Fold this protein.
Amino acid sequence: MKVAGKNIVITGGASGIGKELALRFHKEGAAHITVADLQEDALKEVAESVGGLAVQTDVSSEAAIQNLVAKAEEAGGPIDIFVSNAGIIRKGWEDLPNDFWQLSWDVHVMSHVYAARAVVDKMVERGSGYLVNTASAAGLLSQVDASPYAVTKHAAVGYAETLAIKYGDKGVRVSVLCPQQVHTAMTAGRTDGVASVDGTITVEELADCVIETMDKEEFLILPHPQVKEYMQRKTSDYDRWIGGMQRLRKKYLGA
């Protein structure tokens, strides 16, 4: 699908990946762009730069997502592309507080569910639409220093798969974005971590990959193409792969 002439919604749009996608979609000729985030001032700046709409939104709330969709439709008509992109990360394991585990689930999984509930039926009626859900390479592989992130990103990939299975023959395309490390505020200070083992790419490079993959309507958006090879290694010998991840953890984080 080409983004030219499309009405697009992007969550997590105030900075990083979401901001760059808004800029790139605008450059590609999107008809209207609505950006959503909790960061109100930064969000307004992004919206102004693309001639679009800013809607302050807590993506962990279904009511907030429904409000976002209503305002985006009022401003630009039927939604053609919904990019569910918001994300959070915090280092830690099972000892992290329950409320952070729940927030990770709500932001990384339920926000995608709420978005689909709000837009997919209308897309099916029109026989056309595109859902782009941001997960992470951690959702295909793992994360050696952040359990809630790894677990919920796996779930995000799984949910995107179910959407593709259910709606792919009804005109609704689904892609899941799974980068390793990208230069954003979220990765600041993490340039020597495991996620950067294949290099830290720019948001501009990521946006190039998103555009190319959406043009081909492929499910996996992999700005780091090595991730597919790692997936194949993982599934071909799971125990060997776990051992390799243990060694990576020791190398980067110590015993």
